[in-house]
């Protein structure tokens, strides 16, 4: 990456401090990963196959599920391999690629959630013109802009970090190429680099969160004008799932990436990163399913269809035998 880089490989130390727990961690993380894939895939299939869910909100929710699935795919498969492998090395280019995709997708998730809050504001503020304001073209543009801006920010961070010189230790005290553990290994790491990365992180987390809060301030001002308490509760209920997901996502992300860094906090950051990487994409489809009757009905249909298909395949196999 940089002309002065002296190392070509890193060692992902991660959970190597717990050698007796490697198999248990593998089973737990594999189960969690499979659950994440199944849950998010179910949401995407339900949205695709249910005509009633072909609305802007569910288009954006499907995009968020897809993006979060890809986010975990950038981290978890490599982690599972490392848990069973003696060699935990990763090349400089692989490390940069992993960081680019993980943070590109993570940043995109923040902006997609901002787009979802704007969708809720539009639905509540202009219900009669909602269909003309949030057209499929507008939804696609919002989704595309989220991914483009997210990856541009991630690319800037990766360029800053991998133009540093790595000439001391090559042991990354983490289970993937996270920002702080990699930067701590640089010989010429300065306050300027830390500030630059912090500014980009704050732009994504702080900027998208402010957009979400602005949308909800406007939503609140509109809802409070509704004369009946039942009408206000109904309006707020359409936002409850999204607001819950936002709180979970930003609580974890803000703790990991916006608080002051030092070498002594790396293990704490790693444990929080596990929660952010696994719990967030796992809880999001659960929250939307538990608090949304339309999604519950659509998921039941998907599961019933899947069960019938499995039974049919099993019966055909039995007859062939």
From TrEMBL:
What role is this protein assigned? Putative odorant or sperm cell receptor.
Q: Where are the transmembrane segments?
A: 23-45, 57-80, 100-118, 138-162, 198-223, 235-258, 270-290
- Membrane topology value: Multi-pass membrane protein
PANTHER family registered for this protein in UniProt: OLFACTORY RECEPTOR (PTHR26453)
Protein's recorded name: G-protein coupled receptors family 1 profile domain-containing protein
Looking at the record, the residues that make up the G-protein coupled receptors family 1 profile domain are 39-288
* Entry GO MF terms: G protein-coupled receptor activity; olfactory receptor activity
> Per UniProt, which keywords does this protein have?
Cell membrane, G-protein coupled receptor, Glycoprotein, Membrane, Olfaction, Receptor, Sensory transduction, Transducer, Transmembrane, Transmembrane helix
């Amino acid at each position: 990456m940089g002309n002065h880089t002296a190392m070509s490989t890193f060692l992902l130390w991660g959970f190597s401090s717990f050698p007796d727990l490697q198999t248990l961690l593998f089973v737990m993380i594999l189960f969690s990963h499979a659950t994440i894939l199944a849950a998010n895939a179910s949401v995407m299939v339900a949205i695709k196959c249910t005509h009633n869910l072909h609305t802007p909100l569910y288009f954006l929710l499907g995009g968020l599920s897809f993006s979060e699935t890809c986010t975990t795919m950038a981290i978890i498969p490599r982690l599972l391999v490392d848990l069973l492998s003696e060699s935990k090395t990763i090349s400089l280019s692989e490390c940069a690629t992993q960081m680019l995709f993980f943070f590109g997708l993570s940043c995109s998730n923040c902006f997609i959630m901002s787009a979802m809050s704007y969708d809720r504001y539009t639905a509540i503020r202009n219900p009669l013109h909602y269909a003309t304001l949030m057209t499929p073209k507008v939804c696609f543009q919002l989704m595309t802009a989220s991914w483009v801006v997210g990856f541009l920010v991630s690319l800037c961070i990766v360029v800053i970090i991998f133009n540093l010189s790595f000439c001391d230790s090559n042991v990354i005290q983490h289970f993937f190429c996270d920002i702080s553990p990699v930067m701590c290994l640089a010989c010429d790491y300065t306050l300027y680099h830390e500030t630059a990365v912090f500014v980009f992180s704050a732009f994504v987390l702080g900027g998208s969160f402010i957009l979400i809060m602005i949308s909800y301030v406007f939503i609140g001002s509109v809802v409070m004008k509704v004369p009946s308490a039942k009408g206000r509760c109904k309006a707020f209920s359409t936002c409850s799932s999204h607001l819950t997901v936002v709180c979970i996502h930003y609580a974890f992300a803000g703790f990991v990436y916006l608080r002051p860094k030092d070498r002594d906090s790396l293990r704490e950051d790693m444990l929080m990163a596990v929660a952010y990487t696994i719990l967030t994409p796992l809880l999001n489809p659960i929250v939307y399913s538990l608090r949304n009757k339309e999604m519950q009905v659509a998921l039941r249909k998907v599961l019933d269809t899947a069960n019938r298909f499995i039974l049919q395949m099993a019966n055909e196999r039995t007859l062939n035998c």
